[in-house]
Amino acid sequence: MSELMERYRKEVVPALRQELGYKNVMQVPRLEKIVVNIGLGEAIQNPKALEAAQQDLEAITGQHPITTRAKKAVANFHLRKGMPIGLKVTLRGRRMYDFFQRLVGVALPRLADFHGTSPEAFDGRGGYSLGLKEQAIFPEVEYDKIDKVRGLQVTIATTASTPEEARRLLSHLGMPFARG
Known about the structure:
By secondary structure, the chain is an alpha+beta fold.
C-alpha cells in the first residue's frame, strides 16, 4: 500500500470527519482519479512529437497513455476529424496516490518562483485542475532527452460535493495552496 494511502486512512479521514462533522466514514471525500493530459497541436505538422510526448508521459505516470483525436475538422489549423492531437492517462488506486505524492512532494517544489497552487481552480463538483508549463519538473523525465518543452494538465477528481470539501481534502494530503 502506498504511503499516502496509508496516511489518508489513518490521519486524513479522522481529521476531515471531525472538521466537517461527518457521522459516517463513507461521507469523507477521497481521491477518485487523476487525469494527466498533454495537448499536442504540433502533432499536425510533426508526427514525431506524439512519440516523444508519449515517452515523457509514460515516464511521469508509469502508465501507457491513450491518444486523443480531433472531434471535428478545423480548416484554419489544417486539422481533420480523427487526427491525433493529444495524449492522456487516467490514474486510479495506488498509481494515483503515488503520482499525487510525487507531484506535491517533488515536482511542484522544483518550479521556479513557486508560491503555491491556486486555491481558485476548483470546478464546483469536487474537481481540481492544475496546469504545468513543463514536463521537466518531474525527475523521471531525463532533461537531455527532451526534444521540446511541453505543458501538461493535471485534473484531480474527488468525491467531495463542494469546492471547500475538496480544498480541505487536498490540503490534508499535502497540496501546497497559495495564501491569498
